[in-house]
Amino acid sequence: MRHFGHIAPEVRQRLFHRQPCEFTTDSPARLLSAALGATLYSPATRPRLADDIVKQTGRGVVSMVLCLEDSIDDADVPAAEENLVRHLTDLAGRAPFDTDPPLLFVRVRAPGQIPDLVRRLGPAVRLLSGFVLPKFTEERGMPFLEALAQAEADSGRRLFAMPVLESPELLYRESRVETLEGIFRAVDKYRERVLALRLGVTDFCSSYGLRRAPDMTAYDVQVVASVIADVVNMLGRADGTGFTVTGPVWEYFRVQERMFKPQLRQSPFLEGHAVELRQALIEHAMDGLLREISLDQANGLLGKTCIHPSHVPPVHALSVVSHEEFSDARDILRPERCGGGVLRSAYTNKMNEVKPHRAWAERILLRAEVFGVAREDVGFVELLAASIPGGLRGTGTGTRTGEAG
């Protein structure tokens, strides 16, 4: 699979200076953690779950979470498990695939579900990349990680964990540092199995009876922004001890009325001959999503939890590395620059200081590998327009979950 693999090769050739790489479920963990992109959540109760997976893969989705937790009623769990096993078994039996299936994860409620589902899936477990672990703390999370390790050993299949950081202990100031230290101990012990850490911002808001409006981002809710900052501070460091931390869910997919002006400038869409696309983005509250994605990246987050298919193309389009970023990163990492120093960027608009900017440059080149590098004259608008040629109105609402993530 590859990002933007659903668009025609000649279109990719026109858009990309360096095209996204191909990867598989067996690729190195470091590559897969950067490649998650927009992770689309779907309740495991979906009656056409296997077809949904195939459909969304054909639209550019490369990672999905099949949810047995918050998105379904407590009473529906046994039926959801049965539905999940049946559809993944069906999907595993389809040969050949038109496209490779995405990275598939199951969000469970209890540690015992992990070995049980792996056993029930049998050979179909080859489709699973791992499990999403809810409300993760050291105390609650260790049994999940131990169950995952045992299931991996029993099945012979590499399985990753994606803990969700969403517990009140993490939110409350008086317990936050201790909770983060405990989380670090747990994920560090199982480092080779932890693909990424996911932020459960909706649960954070619920502890205070808050809900951000479509005109606001998670970073405008200060109590939430402070948690994100501390999670990145303690768990997202670039010194080799950190993990990939993904961005919070965006809850909106259409807005009937707004209080503030749209946040998308007109000029990039005029230049890209995409005025109608801009209007569709505004109608579907995507201007707020685009701003939040940009703030995610500025704060060290990579990828994003998504509950609607229309959110996937904006996340991926904004994840493509610009030609300018790629040029700067490559210059900073040239072997002859290993001693440090300062140089003017090739675009002659900024200073590149080799030692302080080195970790940034390494992250940029990793993102460039999985999402590609845009041509010098190609911007976000062109990438987004190519990703959704039918427009936002054609993306459908098939996998909407209303899930907190």
Report the order of strands and helices. Answer: HEHEHEHEHEHEHHEHHEHHHEHHEEHEH
Q: Supply Rg.
A: 21 Å
Which band does the percent of strand residues land in? 5-15%
Tell me the structural class: alpha/beta
CATH class term: Alpha Beta
**Helix amount:** 40-55%
State the CATH superfamily name.
Phosphoenolpyruvate-binding domains
Number of strands: 12
Kindly identify the CATH topology: TIM Barrel
Which regions have little confidence, pLDDT < 50, spanning 5+ residues?
A: 393-405
Report how far the terminal alpha carbons are from each other: 25 Å
CATH architectural designation: Alpha-Beta Barrel
Major sheet size, sense and barrel closure: 8 strands, parallel, barrel
Give the rounded overall mean pLDDT: 89
Q: Note the overall shape.
A: globular
User: How are the strands of the largest sheet arranged?
Assistant: 2-3-4-5-6-7-8-9
Q: Count up the domains.
A: 1
In DSSP terms (H or I, runs of 4 or more residues), the helix count works out at 17
Cofactor: Mg(2+)
InterPro entries: C-C_Bond_Lyase-like, Pyrv/PenolPyrv_kinase-like_dom, Pyrv_kinase-like_dom_sf
GO biological process, one term: oxaloacetate metabolic process
GO molecular function, one term: magnesium ion binding
